[in-house]
Amino acid sequence: MKSFSKMAYPYVVWMCVMIIAPMLMIVFYAFSAKGNDLLAFQFTFENFARFFSDTIFPSVLWRSLKMAFVTTALCILLGYPTAYIFAKMKPNNQAIMILLVTLPMWINVLVRTYAWRGLLGYVDLSSEMRVYVGMIYNFLPFMILEVYTSLSKIDPNLIVASHDLGADDGETFRRVILPLSLPGVVSGITLVFLPAVSSFFIPKLLGGGQYVLIGNLIENYFITSGDWNFGSAISLIMAVIILISMFVMRKMDYSNKEAGD
Amino acid sequence: MEHKTKIHERIYAALILAFFYLPIIYVVFFSFNQSKSLTKFTGFSLQWYEKMFADRMIMSAIGYTVLCAVIATFVSTIVGTVTAIGLSKSKRVLREAVNQVNNLPMLNPDIVTAIGFMLFFTSLKIKTGFVTMVLAHIAFCIPYVILSVMPKLRTLDPNLAEAALDLGCTPMQALWKVIIPQIKPGIVSGALVAFTMSFDDFVISLFTTGPGVSNISIYVYGAVKRVNPTINALSAILVFVITAVLIIVNVVPMIRERRNAKNVNAAELETGVN
Question: Which residues on chain A are in Cβ contact (under 8 Å) with B235?
Fold first, then answer.
């Protein structure tokens, strides 16, 4: 039986080549001077200095973070009540509702985002608002599904017990249902915030080309202008910010659990 | 929770669902439009469908998408399953290390994973094109296959394989006749995830493909700069196919269940249990 363990070895090699090496490549390019060659390596902080000393780049970063933050908040505000209503339905209807939410997710993201262009033609919205519509449309299903999963796991007896002990509906929600559904909200936040920060086709398809987010910057530096060193530095900055926010998220989740005990 | 919803709650849920479906219905509707307009419906026509099937770019994009998804699914399902079986018998350290590294592409934004691949291929002087796109797809699909096969292996009774060996099976036979059939549901769902991930991928494909090779997503991304109703037709066809597949996937098991229930009833009647 031990001999089966050898079956994992080829993948370990593949993983080092296809996952670890590409990640190291980004770091390597971000810290090297212009010129796309592995052998002519020159260590430099220049790419990062260029990003933060500029007036435009930090403001694009800030705009992306703000947009991801607002998108996440709106997804919670719209998605939590939806999930809550679903969880209150009869079991058969719950299954149908969840199927109806998942169904559009099977259709290609580009196609779904493109689909909004026709409808948005009727209303006069700023490019920022159009991008928000696209973001919420793409990411709201994740929030609904995550919150619904944690709500449907709540033991109904806990709610009965809360009522028996004299809590009204509002208090039961605040002190029993909400705390128990928070893990779903937290994983929903991860699933919304992460792709929202780095999104670049939603602003491009719906923002009319004028609306630039950090993802668009990265795309431009890689595909249009071919300055891979600077592009890598921008991606690294973004990846680090995302890692930090995920870490803070997890800390908050943890302290919530501590407080709940 | 109590199974009672108030009328305003039902209206709210309906509005959210309408938000999800409205743009899709709109695109399907306008794919039958006579004119180029995306806001004025001037009459029924199938001309955008004709144009779509005559468009070589769209047809080749569909071909590349399907071919890439089939190859990536095939390879990643086999490699992922073999690796998962290997890991289930490996030391804990190795298992944890592989899981951590596999998490990287899932935790990173797609665009970061994508430029990693792009830098990797071009630094090694590998010409980007269909092959590099397929390689990247295989790479991001394998972790999902491992993730869906692993839990099945964890619940597998280790004595089963031991018994097979004791009864004279070679390790290969034990694997093929005992382990694989037991973890089949995990393999199938892993393959399905891999297929849909590859079929729908945009970001990683955009950065790893080369000139002349586009999948459906890249085609849509490149073609929306101007009004182009053939994309409506392409979208509508994708919507039709996916809806049909999902209905079949959801309805067939229901029919089968009903038939099984009938058979059981019939059997019970015959043996006089009922």
Answer: 107-108, 111, 114-115
